[in-house]
Automatic annotation (TrEMBL):
InterPro entries assigned to the protein according to its UniProt record, in alphabetical order: Membrane_assoc_protease (IPR052165), NA-bd_OB-fold (IPR012340), NfeD-like_C (IPR002810)
Protein name as annotated: NfeD family protein
Single GO cellular component term: plasma membrane
Signal sequence coordinates: none
Topology of the protein relative to the lipid bilayer: Multi-pass membrane protein
Gene3D superfamilies found in the cross-reference section: Nucleic acid-binding proteins (2.40.50.140)
Record-annotated NfeD-like C-terminal domain positions: 91-145
Domain of life (superkingdom): Bacteria
UniProt-annotated location(s): Membrane
Length: 154
């Protein structure tokens, strides 16, 4: 009983199984490999003389093409965001006024940010001084003193 028409059907079954696996374990990757297996299955059905080496080359080539198209499709479309710094906590702190909790001496100290403390780097200032976060480097906030005195126009 020959219920399986050959290698082409096996490739199509593999494509279906990979597609089902993508649905069960979403990762936006198996769908591209499933597409390559499906194309290889169709090519194997259309060209039965395509041997195993040809099928594997087809599968590998179509996998690369499908993954590259998928990367381009998904990789470039970040979409507009109402808050582009949403997941960048340090970028959200730039411009914030914070209080020095451990005096900045020799260029290093600590500042209070919300209900926590962060290491800080900047000019020497005593405890309790309000400073402005101007940047960050390797998890250390870079701070500058706040100039509260108004500047007179020249």
């Amino acid at each position: 009983m020959d219920w399986l028409p050959g290698a082409g059907a096996l490739w199509l079954i593999a494509a279906a199984l990979l597609g089902i696996a993508e649905l069960l374990i979403p990762g936006v990757f198996l769908v591209f490999v499933a597409l390559a297996a499906g194309i290889t299955g169709v090519l194997t059905l259309l060209f039965p003389e395509l041997g195993l080496p040809g099928q594997l080359i087809s599968f590998g080539a179509w996998s690369v093409v499908a993954v590259l198209i998928g990367r381009r499709w998904y990789g470039n479309d970040d979409g507009p965001s109402a808050d582009p710094r949403l997941n960048d906590r340090i970028a959200r702190l730039i411009g914030e006024h914070v209080t020095v909790t451990h005096a900045i001496e020799g260029g290093y100290g600590r500042v209070r940010v919300g209900d926590g403390e962060w290491p800080a780097r900047g000019p020497d200032v005593p405890v309790g001084t309000r400073v402005c976060v101007s940047g960050a480097s390797e998890g250390i906030l870079i701070v500058e003193p706040i100039n509260d005195t108004p500047q007179l126009p020249e």
